[in-house]
Design a protein that fits this description.
4-stranded parallel β-sheet; two-stranded antiparallel ribbon; 38% helix; 11% strand
């Protein structure tokens, strides 16, 4: 198991659960028989890069990118040097429109993670070239549990739910304690249906500031 820092204690009940043990058995088979993304040592990177004590926002993705070299355990993010998927380019367009931040040279969102944005996919692994291929292995139970934990134990988080898959998670979140921002997915198929112009980056910072929490530096060029 990789070092999960201060997530170790809150996640311990999940790792001890028989449902997680079944996920592990499934993954042992998948990684030994197929190409699976991300690398097994990167599966929990969203927790490694965003300490539990420092979570300010949760951005929900669906499952990891399924083409070679893209996924590294942070939703929507790609490794440095890898071309941006269209959804990520659209995110940077909205960021420019909303906050004035120029598109970065790299699509690596690790800086956001270190700023307190938990970049959580609802499924943490995927078989190469087969989107959603691990959606039913138990990850939804695991990640739903993480969302519920954050909702119960923390206050004044921002949950960014982009697209139908993410918006289904809204019932897990206590809207009296947190801000839930919903819109269309940044995919080219849906970005013009409400993602462009959503201004979720500035709305996140406005909410954090109103609650005495330092805003997120969304500019990846700094």
């Amino acid at each position: 198991m990789v070092d999960l820092g201060d997530w170790k204690e809150p996640l311990a009940p999940l790792f001890a659960d028989d449902r997680y043990k079944r996920i592990r058995e499934f993954l042992k088979y998948e990684y030994s028989h197929y190409t699976v993304y991300p690398d097994m040592y990167d599966i929990f990177n969203c927790f490694r890069y965003t300490p539990y004590a420092k979570v300010k926002a949760v951005l929900l993705g669906q499952d990891p990118y399924h083409n070679e070299g893209q996924a590294h355990g942070l939703c929507f993010s790609v490794k440095e040097g890898v071309p941006n998927p269209p959804s990520l380019d659209n995110m940077f367009k909205e960021l420019k429109s909303d906050m004035g931040c120029d598109p970065p040279k790299s699509g690596d969102l690790t800086k956001w993670a270190k700023e307190g944005v938990l970049l959580l996919n609802t499924a943490l692994t995927v078989r190469a070239h087969q989107a959603n291929s691990h959606a039913d292995c138990g990850w939804s139970w695991f990640t739903d549990s993480v969302i519920g934990l954050l909702s119960r134990e923390k206050e004044h988080l921002v949950f960014l739910l982009w697209g139908g898959n993410a918006r289904k998670k809204k019932p897990l979140i206590d809207g009296s304690k947190h801000l839930v921002l919903e819109c269309a997915h940044p995919s080219p198929l849906s970005a013009y249906n409400g993602f462009f112009g959503c201004r979720h980056f500035s709305k996140t910072n406005d909410y954090l500031a109103r609650n005495g929490i330092s805003p997120i530096d969304w500019d990846l060029n700094r």
